[in-house]
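TEACHING EXERCISE
Course module: macromolecular assemblies
Task: Read the component lines below, then compare them to the predicted structure of the full complex.
Student: A.B.
Group: 4
Components provided:
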Amino acid sequence: MSFVPPLAASTVADILLDLFIVLLAAKIGDEIFKRIRQPAIVGEILAGIIVGPAVFGLVELGETLTVFAELGVVFLLFWVGLETRLSDLLQVGKVAGLAGVLGVILPFAGGVALGFGMGEETGTAVFLGAALVATSVGITSAVLLEMGAMDRTESRAILGAAIVDDILALVLVGVATGIAETGEFDPLTALVVLAIAVGFVVFVGVGGTKLLQARPALLQTPKFSESPLLPGVIICLGLAAFAAEIGLAAIIGAFLAGMMIAETKDEDPIEEEVAPLYAFFPPFFFVVIGMQVDLDAFTDLGTDALLLGVTALAVVTKFAGAWLGARSLGPKGAAFVGVGMVPRGEVGIIVASIGLAAGAFDEELFAVIVGMSILTTLIVPPVLRRLADADAPDGVT
Amino acid sequence: MSFVPPLAASTVADILLDLFIVLLAAKIGDEIFKRIRQPAIVGEILAGIIVGPAVFGLVELGETLTVFAELGVVFLLFWVGLETRLSDLLQVGKVAGLAGVLGVILPFAGGVALGFGMGEETGTAVFLGAALVATSVGITSAVLLEMGAMDRTESRAILGAAIVDDILALVLVGVATGIAETGEFDPLTALVVLAIAVGFVVFVGVGGTKLLQARPALLQTPKFSESPLLPGVIICLGLAAFAAEIGLAAIIGAFLAGMMIAETKDEDPIEEEVAPLYAFFPPFFFVVIGMQVDLDAFTDLGTDALLLGVTALAVVTKFAGAWLGARSLGPKGAAFVGVGMVPRGEVGIIVASIGLAAGAFDEELFAVIVGMSILTTLIVPPVLRRLADADAPDGVT
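Instructor-supplied answer key:
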C-alpha cells in the first residue's frame, strides 16, 4: 500500500538527532576557528572528522545527510550566483577559459602519466587523470565569501574557470567510465556529452539571464506570493536538478539560477531572504566532507606515501595550469586563481566513487583519491586568506 | 569502508528533482487556493494527492521527503512558539487543560466503543480509541498563522490543549501497543511515560523560558556568530529530537524551543531570519500528507461507509470534548477551539502506522484511519476561517 510512511517515528527521531549533532558540531568548529582567525570551513570539516566514523562515530552518513550536504553546496553556489553578474563573468571570459582548460589538461596528463608509471591499465590511468581534474568551487567560494572577496576579478575568473573545468571533467569522467567498462574510447558519446553540457550553460546562463533582464516581472507577478523567495528557490532547485540529471554538477545549475535572478530588480530582498537557507544548509556540506575521512585506510606507510605523492601532483599540476591560464592578471592575481582552483572537495570524492564502482580503482587508490580531495581542501583556505590579506593583486584584465 | 558515499550521484539528482517537483506543486496549489480565497494549505495537500501515487505518481515518498515533511512541521511549530509567550499560555491554562483532557476522553471512549461494537479484540478497540485522539496542531496552526489569528485567546487555548492532548495520546498509544502485543495493560509503564512527558514539558517550557528570561545573553554572546539564527535553530532541532526520542511529538520540543527563544530580547530579528526556513520546509509537510492518500483503498463501498462513520465520530467527539472544556470562552470561542482541535493530520497517520505494525489494524482499518486523518484535515481550514471571519468571539477567560 502506498500509504505506509516509509520511516518509523523512531527513525525520524534518530535523523533529527543526527541533524542536531551535525549542526552543533559545525557551529562549534566554526566558532573555534573564527576565534583563532582561521577559515571557519576548515573548522567545520574537522568537526565532521570528529563526529564522523573516523573518531567518535556519533553520526552515520545516510541519505538525509547526503542530500543536506548537496543542498548545502547548491545554496552556496546559488548565493554566489546572486552576487555575480553575467557581464562581469563575460569580462573575464578569456582568462577563465584559459585557466579552466589549462587547469584541466595538466592535472589530467599528470594523473594519466602517474597511472601508467605505476603500471596500471589504461582505464585506471585515465580515471586517475579524471580524478585529479575535479575542482570543488564550493570550497573556494565559501572562503571567498567569508573574506568578502567575491567581487574581485580573480574571484570571477575562478568561477568562470570552474564552470569550464566542470564541463571538461564531466566529459573526461564519461570517457574514463567508458574505457574502464568497455576498454574503448567512444568519441561520439564524448562529443554529445560536451555539446549537452555547453548547450545547457549557454542556454540557461546567457538565455535565462537575458530573459530576466528583459522581463524581471516574471519573478514578481503582483499576486504571486508575498516574497520572491520561493520562486527563486524553486528555479534554483529545478536548474540544479536538471544539471545533475544531465550529469553536470548540480551546483552549476544553482549558480546559473542565482546569476539569472541577480538580474531582476529585486535582487536585494532575495539575498536577504536566501541568507538563512544559506546559513542552514552549507554546514552540512562541510561536515559531511569531514565525515568521509577514514583514518584506518592510512595505517600503511606505502599508502601514505602514495597519498602524499598524488596530493603533491594534484596541487602542482592544477596550480601550474590555472596560473598559466590566468597570468594576464599579473603574478599575484594568477597565483590567487591558481590556488583557488586547487581544492578537490566533494567533486574528487564523487569521481573516486564512480571509479570504484566502474572497477577502475581498488580500495587503496580510492582511499588515496578521497584523502587527496580532503587534503587539498584543508590546505587551500588558509593560503587563500593569506594571499588576499597581502596587498591587492596587481594588474587587471 | 566508511568512505563510500551512500548514494550515487544519479540518486542525488533524482532526489533534487523530487524536491523541485514537490515545492513547485505546493506553490501552484497554494497560489490557486489563495486566488479562490480558500486556505492555502488545502491547496498544498491536494497538490500532494495529484503528484503522489494516488494520481500521477510523479514523486515517491522516501526518506528525504519524510524528513523534510517532519522538519516542515517542526519549523512551523517553532514559528508558532516564537509568537507565544509562556505567560499567555499559562493564562489560558485551565481552559486548555480542560479542553485537552475532555478532547481526549470523548474520542477515546467513542473509538473504543466503536471497536467493541464492530466485534474487534481489546487491542484493536483500544488502538482505535487512541487513533481518534490524535490532534494535528500543525494544521490548525498553519491556518491560524495564515489568518493572522495566532494572538487570540482561543488560539492560545488550542495550543495549550494540543500539548495536553499530545501527552495523553502518547500514553494511550503506549498502552494500546502494550495491549496489542502482550494482551495486558501495564499501568506502571503508562505512569512512567506520563511522568517523563510532563516532566519534559514543564522542565523545558517553564524552566527554559525562565532561564532565558533571566539571561537572554545566552543567545547573544557578542562574539558568537553574527546572527542568533543558528543557535536558535540548533536549540529547536535539539529539543525536537529529544522530544521525539522520548516518544513525544517532535513538534512539542520545537514549540517549546520557540517559546523559550521568544523571551530573549532579540525576538524580532530571529523571526525575520527563521521566516525563509518557515517558507521553505512546511510545504513539504502539507504535500506529503496528500501523498499518503491511496484512492484505491476506497473502491469498496463498505470501506467507504466505515470511513464516513469513523470520520463523523472523530469530528463529533473531538469537537464536543474540546467545546465542553472551553465553554468558559463563550459559545463562539468554544466552537473555535472545538473546530481547531479536529484535524488529525500526520499524527493520525502515525498512530495508524504504529497500529498496523503492532498487528492491531488490518489494511482496511489502517486505510480508514489514514482517510479519516486526511478528511478531518481538509474539512477544518475553511470552517475555521469562516468562524474567524464572523464577528470576533464573545467572552474571554
